Amino acid sequence: MSRLDTWTRGQHTAPVNGTTTTHPTYRRGSGPGVVLIHEIPSLTPEVIAFAEEVVASGFTVVMPHLFGTPEHAASPGHVASAVRQVCVSAELTKLRTGVTTPVAGWLRSLARELHAELGGPGVGAVGMCFTGGFALAMMVDDSVAAPVVAQPSAPFAIGRRRASDLNLTPEDLETVKERAAAGCQVLGLRYRQDPAVGKRFEVLTHELGENFIRVEFEGRKHATLTAHRQQEGVDRVLAFLAEKLRS
Question: Please, what CATH class does the domain formed by 3-245 belong to?
């Protein structure tokens, strides 16, 4: 049986750059809502396993499927195929700086819908790897109360400028800073020597101050919650979601 067979498949439709766009979603659990955005290459078994831990901790998890093939392991071929799909997608920014990824509006719409249904102080947003910074972009909407940024890697960290870019327009960055100053903290996870993250943690600390909570591990590994899982990181995410969404 497929691991996703135990999840309820649905879909969400919202504009992306003015074009009506629909992506599949997978939902499971009860309690406060959490939008969990998969990393490259897709909804791998490791991503699903982490999502199931969030469900088991008492949350309603919705996973959008944005690219790649669900449930395939992160083999070199699958990663290469997903990267090709990402590189030609108009919904995703890869190299441009000072812009917000276009799919952010779609993700904010999904978060608003989930919050309107479930109520409470808001929903969580967990981004990983290429989608790590998407949680910041979602935070522009008041429905997101617990943004988690795991090894943010977009735009691709080629050169100093891209390695420091937060994948946000200046206007969206100002909104993120205002929300953080008003008490909406951001949790970040990374390996200290992960080249894909670049200087983004330093930039986030500069911009958000003590409202950016840094959880860092030694080494050059990458996927803190999945392939290179750190139990401390998983525990910190679950505790952060509980603190912000159950108050």
Answer: alpha beta
Q: Which residues contact 187 (CB under 8 A, 6 or more apart)?
A: 146, 147, 148, 149, 213, 215, 236, 237, 240
The token pair at 86 is 């990402």
155-193 pLDDT per residue, tens:
999 999 999 999 999 999 999 999 999 999 999 999 999
Beta strand spans in the chain (E): 8-16, 19-29, 33-36, 60-64, 123-128, 144-150, 186-191, 212-217
Q: Answer yes or no: are the C-beta atoms of 198 and 164 closer than 8 Å.
A: yes
d(C-alpha 40, C-alpha 97), whole Å: 20
Q: Angle at CA 133, nearest 5°, toward 193 and 229?
A: 50
Q: How far is CA 237 from CA 11, 69, 182, in A?
A: 26, 26, 21
Q: What angle do CA 47, 160, 17 make, to 5 degrees?
A: 55
What residue spans define the domains of the chain?
3-245
Contact by Cβ (8 Å): 130, 153 = yes
Closest by CA position to 166, among listed 108, 194, 206:
206
Sheet of 186-191, strand order? 8-16, 19-29, 60-64, 33-36, 123-128, 144-150, 186-191, 212-217
Give the tens place of pLDDT for each residue, 84-134: 988 899 999 999 999 999 999 999 999 999 999 999 999 999 999 999 999
Q: Which residues contact 49 (CB under 8 A, 6 or more apart)?
A: 3, 226
